[in-house]
Amino acid sequence: MTGDRFRFPKVEFGSEEQALREEIRDFIREEKASGGFTPMADSWGSGWSPEWSRKMGGRGWLGMMWPKQYGGGEKPALHRYIVTEEMVSAGAPCAAHWVADRQSGPLLLRYGTEEQRTSILSRIAAGECYFAIGMSEPDSGSDLASVRTTATKVDGGWTINGRKIWSSGAHRSHYMIALVRTAPRDMKARHAGLTQFLIDLKSPGIEIRGIRNIAGESHFNETVFDDAFVPDDMAVGEVGDGWRQVTSELAIERSGPERFLSTFPVLTELVRELGPEPGERDAETVGALAARSMALRRMSLGISRLLDEGEAPEVAAALVKDLGTRFEGDLVREARNLLPATAASQSPDLYGKVLADGVLHVPSSTIRGGTNEVLKGIVARELGLR
Amino acid sequence: MSDRIVLDTAERILADLCPPEVVNDAENGVWPAALWAALEESGLTLAWVGEELGGGGAEVGDGFDILKAAGAWAVPAPLAETLLAGWLLEQGGLAAPGGAMTVAPVGAADNVELAVGMLSGTARQVPFARNAGHIALLAAGRILLVEQASCALVPGTSLAGEARDQITFDGVRPLRSAPAPEGLDRDRLALVGAAVRSAQMAGALSRLLDQSVQYAQEREQFGRPIGRFQAVQHALADLAGEAAAAEAAADAAGEAVAAGDFGPAGIAAIAAAKTRAGEAASKGAAIAHQVHGAMGFTYEHSLHHRTRRLWCWRDEFGNERFWSVRLGRLIAAEGADALWPFLTGSHAA
Predict the structure, then answer these.
(1) pLDDT of B349
(2) In terms of C-beta density within 10 A (0-12 exposed, 13-18 middle, 19 or more buried), how is residue A235 classed?
(3) Contact B252/A380, CB-based, under 8 Å?
(4) How far apart are CA B106 and CA B318, in angstroms?
(5) Which residues in chain B have Cβ-Cβ distances shorter than 8 Å to A89?
(6) Three-state secondary structure call for residue B194
(7) For residues A322 and B240, what is the distance between their CA atoms, to the nearest angstrom?
(8) Interface contact flag, A3 B336, Cβ < 8 Å
(9) Other CB atoms within 10 A of residue B98 CB
(10) CA angle, corner B208, sides to B207 and B211, nearest 5?
(11) From the CB of residue A74, how many other CB atoms can be counted at a distance below 10 Å?
């Protein structure tokens, strides 16, 4: 079966998991009722709320898998999965902590120095410390290995020069983990000479310029490094080992529930609008969308379990992200044509509002974290075609 | 949930005895006797019948693994139908006879009546009826075993060239009869049938992917294998995604049946599986044919062994529309605030 190539093992939830889920649902219900948040599509990407992040941190829902000495909860990956899927499906504003909790923290835990872990992880877990991703550059998008930002060795550290782009939330984040070149490009060894640095975004020589997106938000940025100094102890992992570290982040980055549930609030509000006795065509569309989401969830959960078992299922993750992000777009397209509603961000009704969130954010789903064309290439390589 | 031994046995038998020639011959009326004998001897055909009733007594989940393998190899015999018939007989505590079986009625519009011990009515498009020694019947609230030879049969064929015959039961006396247990009705039979076809589709799609990848690696045009072209690579990546999604959905449906869950969660898992696998069948078969070019459109090439079956199975026991409407109505009845809890409470997880 496909299981021979892409394995998605079954995940079963025990009573502890069920209790966690209920606890989160109660919290979300209360917050929604008291105006703590209004559901939105793309809430993990666009819903920046330090207040929400601190609330989650206070409940032990961030850094859940990390050792207790660093503020973590020593829980299995499945617990974090439950928290994230409950938050994203509800449209709760999780953008502030998202990158730090999902990948920067785990990266530091795995490759960082003791000093880095001690000083930063517990603040992430408390929902107080936010990270930006420093991978793409103006001339390096899908072809990440072509990055040109350099780190030059100087006494006691490195000077960084170059530009990082699409760094979501950099203007409101404390740190960026940037992938930069510590040795000249070698066309024969394209993945060599790259290093990840932990960069304090308040350091001198760093300018962060906002880039307005099509939804009108100043959400992502261009971050310019002009002789920015980074001390030696801020290198993450081995100098020159950056490529391997970056790719190990990708299975986590690409397979989570945020890769197929970003527009789920649109489906929820659509069901509300359609009422208890929908017409046949409406029921058919809702049912078909639900069917797709159920299959995706099973696959995504399967990858979470493989990660728990210490595997790095990068190819299966690429496959799920390709399918899942296309589903996010299809959901919005199919939902909008069922009702005579007009999508508008200022819409008085929630359906019109989440639909607008969905329409305006969906173009980024199939680009961020690896374009679907790159992902299909990764799958094709696994199939033996490249 | 799988017992590796059952699956390995099925795979070994199918690899040995179900080559493309056997599938072609079957379409031309040659019963795959060696294949069937091996399947029967290994106990695979009656995996869903308890040992005390003459069956193999395997886990229900193992049966779904057998079905995926059967779909992958395009088994041109009523393996799925015999399993399903066995499941039905088991529900009534009826002993299973040996040999091939099928199930009726399968069409929602067909009805068979029972009065003073005699049957009446017609069931259409009964799979492999002419090849089956016995028919397991769900009629008048009872589970019945009927000898095929005592019924009137009008042959018909599916898109895949498999038997889909019309059977008239007028005046036939069942061999065995038992009241159907509480809850076992035509709807439940359709649910299990949909889960069965979903598993077969998942298996067929998986093999369709292998076959298409292999062809793209071998077929050269413009001086290189066509699989080197990005357009073809992306099409095959899409096929891989469809196959994986169909399997995930089908596994969830199989687990619902294995758990005996025919409540809203189980129905949702099965409805989602038939919908998703049917969708994957359409998309996947189209991609496989496009990759194979004109060669795949010939009868000589074995691609159609799977694509024609996929086109047949996506219609049977309810098509995508039927099941997605059902799922959509279930969701609507639960309401918007219950949508997410409903989807996560099902066997999708």
Answers:
(1) 40
(2) buried
(3) no
(4) 10
(5) 340
(6) helix
(7) 11
(8) no
(9) 11
(10) 85
(11) 13
CA A327 to chain B, closest CA, distance in angstroms equals 12
Separation of alpha carbons B253 and B268, rounded Å: 9
pLDDT in tens, B221-280: 999 999 999 999 999 999 999 999 999 999 999 999 999 999 999 999 999 999 999 999
pLDDT at B184 over 90: yes
CB A339, CB A375: distance < 8 Å: no
- A:B CB pairs within 8 Å: 195
Averaged over A356-375, what is the pLDDT? 95
CB contact under 8 A, A322 and B341: no
Give me the residue label for tokens 């199930």.
B103
For range A257-281, the mean pLDDT: 98
Amino acid (one-letter) located at B347: H
Spatial separation of the C-alpha atoms in residues B21 and B24, rounded to whole Å = 5
Q: What is the mean pLDDT of chain B?
A: 96
Alpha-helix residue ranges (DSSP H) falling in A242-309: 242-255, 264-274, 280-308
Torsion of CA B159, B162, B163, B164, to 10 degrees: -40
Phi, psi of A165 (to 5 degrees): -135, 165
Half-sphere exposure of A124 (CA within 13 A, CB side): 36
Q: How far apart are the C-alpha atoms of B243 and B280, rounded to whole Å?
A: 7
Please count the other Cβ atoms lying within 10 Å of the Cβ belonging to residue A342: 10
What is the Cα–Cα distance from B243 to B277, expressed in whole angstroms?
A: 8
Question: Do A319 and A6 contact (CB within 8 A), yes or no?
Answer: yes
Instruction: Count the Cβ atoms, other than its own, within 10 Å of residue B341.
Output: 15
Residue B296 Cα distances to A356, B23, B299, B300, B301, angstroms:
44, 16, 8, 8, 6
Q: Could you report how far apart the first and last alpha carbons of chain B are, in Å? A: 14
Where does A126-260 show beta strands of DSSP type E? 131-134, 150-154, 157-165, 175-181, 194-200, 206-212, 218-231, 235-236
Q: Tokens standing for A159?
A: 């000077």
Check A386 against B228: CB less than 8 A apart.
yes
Min Cα–Cα distance to chain B from A364, Å: 20
Å from A89 to nearest chain B CA? 7
Which residues, other chains included, contact A167 with Cβ-Cβ below 8 Å and sequence gap of 6+?
A132, A133, A134, A136, A176, A208, A220, A221, A222, A223
Are residues A297 and B344, on separate chains, in Cβ contact within 8 Å?
yes
User: Is the pLDDT confidence value at B1 over 60?
Assistant: no
- Residue A246 CA to residue A140 CA, distance in Å, equals 15
Task: State how far the Cα of B261 lies from the Cα of B188, in Å rounded to an integer.
Answer: 10
Nearest to B306 by CA among B205, B220, B176: B205
Q: How far apart are CA B337 and CA A198, in angstroms?
A: 42
Distance from the first to the final alpha carbon of chain A: 22
Beta bridge pairs of residue A225: A162, A206
**What pLDDT, in 10s, does the model give residues B57-79?**
889 999 999 999 999 999 999 99
Pair A165, A147: CB distance under 8 Å = no
Q: What is the rounded distance in angstroms from the CA atom of residue B63 to the CA atom of residue B211?
A: 24
What is the ipTM for the molecules in this complex? 0.96
Written as one letter, the residue type at B205 is L
CA B137 – CA B142 distance, rounded (Å): 8
CA distance A37 to B245: 33
CB atoms within 10 A of CB A362: 22
